[in-house]
Amino acid sequence: QVQLVESGGGLVQAGGSLRLSCVASGRTFSNYHMAWFRQAPGKEREFVAVMSSIGVRTSYADSVKGRFTISRDNAKNTVYLQMNSLKVEDTAVYYCAADRDRRNSELESEYDYWGQGTQVTISS
Predict the structure, then answer these.
(1) What is the Cα Rg of the chain in Å?
(2) What backbone torsions phi and psi does residue 27 show, to the nearest 5 degrees?
(3) Does pLDDT of 26 surpass 90?
(4) Ordered DSSP codes for 47-73
(5) Higher pLDDT, 14 or 28
(6) What is the pLDDT of residues 80-90, one digit of tens each?
(7) Does residue 50 carry a pLDDT above 80?
(8) Contact 40, 16 (CB under 8 A)
(9) 100-111: per-residue pLDDT in tens?
(10) If you write DSSP's letter for every residue of 80-96 in order, what string do you get?
(11) In this predicted structure, what is the pLDDT of residue 40?
């Protein structure tokens, strides 16, 4: 079992930046691919970014490429999402997720563990 706890959300103006953190506990963090998803009001949860277990490979949704950066510190059992040039449409609850089968997937169904989410609100 893996427990995930996100933090770092908040309210910022468009064009600003935020850095989300997700701390994992319970199992060996470096065994898992880690991802960020988000869910905007009235919409389904969508993929944002994923990083492989040792941080070699990353993948991003087209909507965040060039603005968001996923990173991880396996010594701290933490994955980060640096979000720059934020837009109103980035407003959502952001979730981190862990994949024990290390598939580097963009599919929500292939993730085994989820955090409770952190709210990000971007004002115009």
Answers:
(1) 13
(2) -140, 180
(3) no
(4) EEEEE-TTS--EEE-TTTTTTEEEEEE
(5) 14
(6) 999 999 999 99
(7) yes
(8) no
(9) 888 889 999 999
(10) EEEE-S--GGG-EEEEE
(11) 97
Residues 6+ apart with CB under 8 A from 65: none
Distance CA 94, CA 92 (A): 6
* Structure tokens that stand for 63 in this block: 């909507």
At residue 102, what is the residue type? R
Neighbours of 61 (CB within 10 A): 16
Mean pLDDT on 41-63: 95
Partner residues linked to 94 by β-bridges: 38, 118
Distance, CA of 11 to chain centre: 17
Distances (CA, A) of 102 to 6, 57, 60: 20, 11, 16
CA distance 54 to 65: 21
